């Protein structure tokens, strides 16, 4: 690939990858997905989240070990090296679908959340425009710039989430946590596994790490960042479990929004909507930009375009149209496809990295 | 490119102000209370109480009831609409209101007892989901119609009716009435047992309904008192079972509810001196922690132990006549409080058959799954339980 430069990858040389990982593992908090935990597990939602978190952490640990062993094989490159040209193309196409569906679902949910919090009268397309323009703009500035932007905004997002969790967890009702296995061990550890979909966007990270890293793979830092992201998600579900009864959380409600409404510090400080809108929008915009960049990489491997920089704006435009259509038609099919491809994507990462027996040769890059 | 990005940021910053969601305060009508009454076989009467902010500034601190004073509250406007559902009623308000209706200042939702189980459940659930309504909004049950209650509201020493609701309902010093927030109410009535309780709101001048009276056990009962005022009031509590009102308990019972949950931090109780006619003994009770419950279900019927500590203080310079020591005096207070609390639990258990103190939550801990708890017949255990009250003076 001729136009590869290190600025288009997430570098391990500075700490920005740490914040990228945290955002990739936490931005789904702002979606409807956390409602899966109370829906399946009832009073054991926090336990189910913890179980999913442990499974996700285990998978990340294994992947990171494999990464270290093979000295940072970028997923697309590793796929070409392991499965040959056709196999590599198939992996790239599946990854592209994962990214497209994830971006579509994310963009739609971000718009619905923003509308629920602050813009009820605004048309959907108008709210969508904020996210689409910023995502396209962010992606066109390059992955390195995006990663550095993460290191500015992700601490703010994490701080906002901590404020939300602390504000609600101590006012919660401990009896919401019992019986400890809620809807039954089968639901908690069986159906509850679907909660790992919260972390499947890690795929983006593996598509954006450099094929050849000058710095050694910081296994410890990757694991610390992953643990931080997963812990935040688990704490969020715990706060939700304590403060909002599972019977109130329906499929179409945003758990983040329900929890946000519970914040009450007295007469003059009870509506932190603006702060929450800011952190959810920032987190979503950062993810969408990164998603577009990852798509641009994958598309680059499939079509080998000369002007890879032009892909993100067109991709985001396509995602926006797709989101608008999904909003008009049925979001159920999109949701199903998203789930299927999210798991397929992460499975792909595992398979590819585990079968990568040799380091990706330079000439294949 | 740089100029284009600066231009884009500049233009977008304007659109972020919300072209579509702009809201002018003088073009908005704020609902501060909502009354819901059943109307006929289907449909409801919705009483929207709007704030009249200009009148609030001219209306200095509510008012007493001077001769010739209007009973009407000038700081609010009440609008009653009959409609099959809430949103139709809300839309209808714009038939005569030029302003945009906003519920972000809604402080109180009052139901009347005539509303059925579905009415309570549906209205409270969609209110909780409503963007503008906060989960901390207070909920009450009117002993007359909700419309009558809201129309009779004329706050004493308070110009702002919205603030009056907030102070009365959520930061209340009213020992004779419980407080209940919308989120807690929804949570409780949507549970399997549908057990909850709400403060009862009575319009001024309307006789109190036949609430279950406590036998007082030597206390100066709320039944012995009379407020010489036509003002609306909150006193007593309605107990909900299966999501609808099952009984109304008097203010004395509500006081015990508040003490045991530590919804009030301290209160004063006055007891009749059993050894001297027309003599009274007053005590201040500081409540350091909520009551603790332990359950022994190895016995039949099961035994529930209620432990409550108090920091007690006698209001009097000298030892009252008839008592030989302070120990004897405090032992008398102990017996009276124990009796009152016992009576409260037996009323909940045998009369209302509703565990509003959530003792079942401590029982729930001993089960691994919700399904096993639901099949454990907690309700029948509670309704036949024996209660041992253990009072401890710190």
How would you summarize what this structure contains?
With 365 residues, chain A is mostly helical. Helices cover 68% and strands 0% of the residues of chain A.
Explain what this protein looks like in three dimensions.
- The complex is a heterodimer of chains A (365) and B (394).
- Chain A is an all-alpha fold.
- Chain A has a single domain (15-364), classed as Amino acid/polyamine transporter I, CATH 1.20.1740.10.
- In chain A, 68% of the residues lie in helices and 0% in strands.
- Chain A has 13 helices and no strands.
- In chain A, helix 4 packs antiparallel against helix 5 (124-140), helix 5 (124-140) packs across helix 11 and helix 5 (124-140) packs antiparallel against helix 12.
- The radius of gyration of chain A is 20 Å and the shape is globular.
- In chain A, 55% of the residues are buried.
- Chain B folds into 2 domains: 26-61 and 71-251, no CATH class; 265-394, 2-Layer Sandwich (GMP Synthetase, Chain A, domain 3), CATH 3.30.300.
- In chain B, strand 1 (28-38) and strand 2 form a beta hairpin.
- Chain B is globular.
- Chain B starts with a helix and ends with a strand.
- In chain B, 38% of the residues are buried.
- Classes of the chains: A mainly alpha (365), B alpha/beta (394).
- The interface between A and B is medium-sized, with 35 and 33 residues.
| Order of secondary-structure elements of chain A | HHHHHHHHHHHHH
Structural class of chain A, please?
mainly alpha
Rg of chain B to the nearest angstrom? Answer: 25 Å
CATH-derived topology of chain A: Amino acid/polyamine transporter I
User: How far from one another are the termini of chain B?
Assistant: 75 Å
Helix count from the secondary structure assignment of chain B: 12
Number of helices of chain A: 13
Assembly status:
heterodimer
Low-confidence stretches of chain B: 64-69
Beta strand % of chain A: under 5%
Largest sheet of chain B: 9 strands, mixed
- Domain module count of chain A: 1
